[in-house]
TrEMBL record:
Single Gene Ontology MF annotation: medium-chain fatty acid-CoA ligase activity
Domain AMP-binding enzyme C-terminal: 425-503
Organism of derivation: Actinomadura montaniterrae
Entry keyword Endoplasmic reticulum: no
Annotated family: Belongs to the ATP-dependent AMP-binding enzyme family.
Name this protein carries in UniProt: Acyl-CoA synthetase
SUPFAM superfamilies per the UniProt record, alphabetical: Acetyl-CoA synthetase-like
Keywords recorded for this protein, A-Z: Ligase
InterPro entries hit by this protein: AMP-bd_C, AMP-bd_C_sf, AMP-binding_CS, AMP-dep_synth/lig_dom, ANL_N_sf
Pfam families: AMP-binding, AMP-binding_C
């Protein structure tokens, strides 16, 4: 294979600036290489073997990047964890992923410690960046270890947890390939090549930088950032997303590519004209977005401002997807694109039969040579499959020339600010409140976030509906459910609309909020 892949590029050009932390600290490729090598030596001494897993509860930046690079060259699974979750939610993932080491940044120490206890993780497997009570300092693991390349390297992988529709998240686990990590890294760059992206300076190309705008625990953020690094691009990390800061970083680091969600576009376009005009964004060649439908007028305005660099795709953690170039989108406004060269789409009715062009149905996808399972849940894996296609339950239709349009989300999933939120998990927690007889949770329109979370509650007998009860219900979620999953508002209803068989007619509750919108998405 050729000359791409972080480890090869770092050896060839150790001075190349491979990453820039949110505080502006720059890290050379040689430095990152040495850090990831030392970590592999340290964890092997701890007893980690091929196929083992590690978890990281760390903010965007170099700490998480080193965990990722170590796992990818030592044949381990790396699971980055959502830092909005509570201790018990994090502990479930640490236990379920069978993590042999858990890394926590002091910023998330409180929930991280609760999580390690919840998971029953032994003290010698807990490592802290900064001050984390009862955790070993990270330095203990790496200090004095050789920075030479470890023996017997083999490709590892990330194992991200997707929010489970049944309330518990599931790890999307792919079999390890056993490939050489450098060859595997080169294969990863296929993803960016789909968008026509080119290698950066150490690989013989021009200077390229990739701006990381979203939390690194999202699959796509890890995939795109990781692949950009393997192509020799500099990773520029943002800690907390801000519109003007984005423009400033694009200009300062001559950022050529990034991965965003439509909420980012909306906030950028809301900046005053004089602020927008202050920054030079002409270095941007690929502003790739996904995760939520982008309203046509917003995308149109972004194309007018940034030029033809706005690319879109539709995909899932499980594999497969579509891609829309700026030209494709201008020809088919609102499309999420057509199938990747190695991917296939199938739109079927409720009986699993293919529907004619232009007709709505459930979207199934497959990607050549990619098989996955939801860790420890064969039943869920099988349920979402049709032959060798799988679905995440989204509804859409295809045009004559193969362009996909999304018409409705999986019946109930809420997409707020690009994050998938599953109502079942929230309903399960609210139901536990003694004054709640029944509850339904769903998304209602929100111009900034796409959707916001609404709960409708049938009060228990004798409970007085009103703002005080709503407040009491929300307070009861403290420490049990991440704040981003809390309903923004709670309405009360006398009786919940249910069929005789107990099935909740959520549509009846949801539709009035969407009646003036074109699409219920």
């Amino acid at each position: 294979m050729g000359s791409l892949g972080f480890w090869r590029l770092a050896q060839a050009d150790p001075e190349w600036v491979a990453a820039v932390d949110p505080d502006g600290t720059q890290y050379s490729a040689g430095d990152l290489l040495a850090r990831s090598n030392r970590l592999v030596h340290g964890l092997r001494e701890l007893g980690l073997k091929d196929g083992d897993g590690i978890c990281g509860l760390v903010p965007n930046g170099v700490e998480g990047l080193v965990l990722y690079l170590a796992a990818l060259q030592a044949g381990w699974y790396y699971t980055p964890i959502n830092w909005h979750l509570t201790g018990p939610e994090i502990g479930y993932i640490v236990a379920d992923s069978e993590a042999k080491a858990f890394f926590v940044h002091e910023r998330y120490a409180t929930e991280g410690v609760r999580a390690a206890d919840e998971a029953g993780l032994e003290a010698h497997r807990r490592f802290g960046f900064g001050d984390v009570a009862g955790f070993r300092p990270y330095a203990e693991l790496v200090d004095g270890r050789p920075d030479t390349q470890p023996e017997n390297r083999s490709a590892g992988a990330t194992m991200h947890y997707t929010s489970g529709t049944t309330g518990r998240p599931k790890g999307v686990k792919r079999a390890l390939t056993g490939l050489d990590p450098d060859d595997s890294a080169e294969l990863m760059t296929f993803l960016l090549a789909l968008f026509g992206m080119t290698p950066g300076r150490p690989a013989g190309g021009e200077h390229q930088a990739h701006l990381i705008t979203s939390p690194n625990y999202h699959t796509a953020v890890t995939q795109f950032g990781g692949s950009a690094l393997q192509m020799g691009h500099t990773l520029v990390y943002m800690d907390k997303w801000e519109a003007e800061e984005t423009l400033k970083l694009i200009q300062e680091h001559r950022v050529s590519n990034t991965h965003m969600v439509p909420t980012h576009f909306k906030r950028l376009l809301a900046l005053p004209e004089d602020v927008r005009a202050k920054y030079d964004v002409s270095s941007m060649k690929w502003a790739i977005h996904a995760a939520a439908p982008c309203p046509v007028p917003i995308k149109q305005q972004m194309l007018d401002w940034w030029g033809d660099c706005i690319w879109e795709y539709y995909a899932a953690t499980e594999g497969g997807g579509t891609i829309a170039s700026p030209q494709d989108w201008r020809a088919h406004p609102g499309t999420v694109g057509n199938a990747w060269p190695i991917s296939e789409l199938l739109i079927v009715d409720d009986d699993g039969n293919e529907v004619p062009t232009g007709q709505h149905g459930t979207i199934y996808m497959k990607m050549a040579g990619v098989q996955f399972e939801y860790k420890g849940d064969k039943e869920k894996t099988e349920k979402n499959r049709l032959r060798d296609f799988f679905t995440v339950g989204d509804i859409g239709y295809l045009t004559e020339d193969g362009f996909l349009f999304l018409s409705d989300r999986k019946a109930d999933m809420i997409i707020s600010g690009g994050a998938n939120i599953y109502p079942a998990e929230i309903e399960n927690e609210i139901t536990l409140h003694p004054k709640v007889a029944d509850v339904a949770v769903f998304g209602i329109p929100d111009d900034e976030w796409g959707e916001q979370i609404k709960a409708v509650v049938e009060p228990a007998e004798g409970a007085e509906p009103g703002p005080e009860l709503a407040e009491e219900i929300l307070k009861s979620l403290e420490g049990r459910l991440a704040k981003m999953k809390w309903p923004r508002t709670i309405d009360f209803i006398e009786t919940m609309p249910r069929e005789p068989n107990g099935k909740l007619l959520k549509r009846k509750l949801r539709d009035p909020y969407w009646k003036d919108r074109d699409s219920a998405i």
